[in-house]
Design goal:
Distance between the termini: 29 Å
Structural class: alpha/beta
Strand content: 15-25%
Strand order of the largest sheet: 1-7-6-2-5-3-4
Helix content: 40-55%
Shape: globular
Number of domains: 1
Largest sheet: 7 strands, mixed
Length: about 250
């Protein structure tokens, strides 16, 4: 097959994959919602089922296999993860037993996604009001401590393309200092195959790797330095293994 034809065929397969991915989100939401209204366990079952579907179809439709490495945390922990695309969300949510997110407030109004996010305990924050957003984030998370789960936060605040630099925000450090929970860093290389925007998906092995936990009680500034170092080092290694040259 000529390179141009092969590329066009892979793009078409990517388009079909993306269309069915969002269609299945609606189908599963319709099926699970009557049960999820009465039980958060069913809400978690719904999101785990959907994430498993995306991983399975990505593998055979576009050749994008996926793997979760390291010890999957359970109980009340903070998971601070590198964020490169929607696919690292899929891998984290599928792996963690009771995932919940710090998410931007606008997402709570998104059809299907917003309702399920609130149902599993995600915390919406207004990123446009920096100081108030961090204070509200700490308060809302603290109020929800009765709901044991793994709180996922992206220290850089947004998706960051492979090779791009973006500072780590102090919100993660403030949560770590105030909640007194261990923090589990997570690295990834998914952006090499599944970009921040666009349709095209590349074949390969996408990985999310849970790293050694950082116990509570460290100085906040030292914690942030250590967090950035371990996540960036591990993510660079995973991306290099995937053939990304930086």
């Amino acid at each position: 097959m000529a390179p141009a034809v092969s590329l066009a065929w892979r793009w078409l397969r990517s388009l079909i994959f993306v269309v069915q991915m969002y269609a299945m989100m609606a189908v599963l939401a319709v099926f699970f919602t009557p049960f999820a209204i009465f039980s958060r366990d069913w809400a978690f079952r719904a999101v785990h089922t959907y994430c498993g579907w995306v991983r399975w179809t990505a593998a055979w439709m576009v050749g994008l296999r996926s793997e979760v490495r390291g010890t999957v945390p359970s109980g009340e922990v903070i998971v601070a993860s590198k964020h490169q695309s929607f696919f690292d969300i899929i891998l984290l949510v599928h792996a963690l037993p009771r995932p919940k997110f710090i998410m931007k407030r606008e997402l709570q109004w998104a059809p299907i996604l917003g309702w399920y996010a609130k149902r599993i305990g995600c915390v919406p924050v207004d990123r446009g009001k920096r100081g108030a957003a961090v204070a509200a984030m700490v308060e809302q998370v603290a109020e929800g401590r009765g709901e044991a789960g793994q709180l996922i936060i992206y220290p850089q605040g947004t998706r960051v393309a492979p090779g791009a630099a973006r500072p780590y925000k102090m919100g993660t450090g403030i949560l770590y200092a105030n909640l007194g929970n261990p923090c589990v860093p997570a690295a990834t290389n998914v952006g090499v195959f599944w970009p921040r925007t666009g349709i095209f998906r590349k074949p390969g092995l996408a990985v999310v790797e849970f790293l050694d936990p950082i116990p509570p009680g460290q100085d906040q500034s030292e914690f942030m330095v250590r967090l950035e170092q371990v996540i960036e080092t591990a993510s660079d290694r995973l991306m290099a293994d995937a053939g990304f040259g930086g």
